[in-house]
UniProtKB/TrEMBL annotation:
The keyword Acetylation does not apply. It comes from the Bacteria. Pathway: Cofactor biosynthesis; riboflavin biosynthesis; riboflavin from 2-hydroxy-3-oxobutyl phosphate and 5-amino-6-(D-ribitylamino)uracil: step 2/2. Residues 1-97, 98-194 form the Lumazine-binding domain. This is Riboflavin synthase. Lumazine-binding repeats lie at residues 1-97, 98-194. PANTHER family: RIBOFLAVIN SYNTHASE, RIBOFLAVIN SYNTHASE ALPHA CHAIN. InterPro entries: ATP_synth_asu-like_sf, Lumazine-bd, Lumazine-bd_dom, Riboflavin_synthase-like_b-brl.
Length: 206
């Protein structure tokens, strides 16, 4: 499990392409890999990956075919930056919301505005996932726990403060860029339960 609080940006050091998977090496900032072991889980742009090897500040991950299909990790290039968070431990402060690291879909950045000390980003989400978006509800974008500021016809918008821009890769996003989305599991459970009971309101009333 993860908290959605991005701990750092790591850089893609190397990518090896093999049958059915990509093997990627990430360079982590000093100290973030202290005490990590092979088999540990790390959120990389919101996708839960397993450490297969580690050497000082470098960690290797195998990204399987299904993960490459449903996430943006197949589009990574050497030198790119990614959001990273190590798995939460019992007793850790939950500053965001609980995440599984299982990406539901990808979304496209459709617009970007930069009012003073803010950044306003709007994303387009595949139609089948829009029913799980709730104004002022939780959403995970590339592994970061964010609050949905408002809903749009095609998705949702968020506001980012300078600290979020500093700590994540969001400061370099431009319209047309694609991100990983994990919807809030509690919201998904409630909506799906109401649908099974034929109690869900029409989409235009949510």
């Amino acid at each position: 499990m993860f908290t959605g609080i991005i701990q750092a940006k790591a850089s893609v050091e190397r990518i090896e392409h093999a049958t059915g998977l990509n093997r990627i090496a990430l360079r982590f900032p000093g100290g973030l890999l202290d005490g990590i072991q092979r088999g540990a889980s790390v959120s990389v742009n919101g996708a839960c990956l397993t450490v297969t090897d580690q050497d000082n500040s470098l960690a290797w991950f195998d990204v399987m075919m299904e993960t490459l299909r449903v996430t943006t990790l197949g589009n990574l290039t050497e030198g790119a930056e990614v959001n990273v968070e190590r798995a939460a431990r019992i007793g850790d402060e939950i500053g965001g919301h609980l995440l599984s690291g299982h990406v539901h879909c990808v979304a496209t950045l459709t617009s970007l505005e930069t009012p003073d000390n803010n950044r306003h980003l709007c994303f387009s989400v595949p139609p089948e996932w829009r029913e799980y978006l709730v104004s002022k509800g939780y959403i995970a974008v590339d592994g970061a726990s964010l609050t949905v500021a408002e809903l749009t016809d095609s998705g949702f918008c968020v506001y980012l403060i300078p600290e979020t821009l500093r700590a994540t890769r969001f400061g370099s996003l431009a319209p047309g860029d694609v991100v990983n989305i994990e919807i809030d599991h509690q919201t998904q459970t409630i909506v799906d339960t109401l649908k099974r009971m034929n109690l869900a309101p029409p989409a235009d009333q949510r």
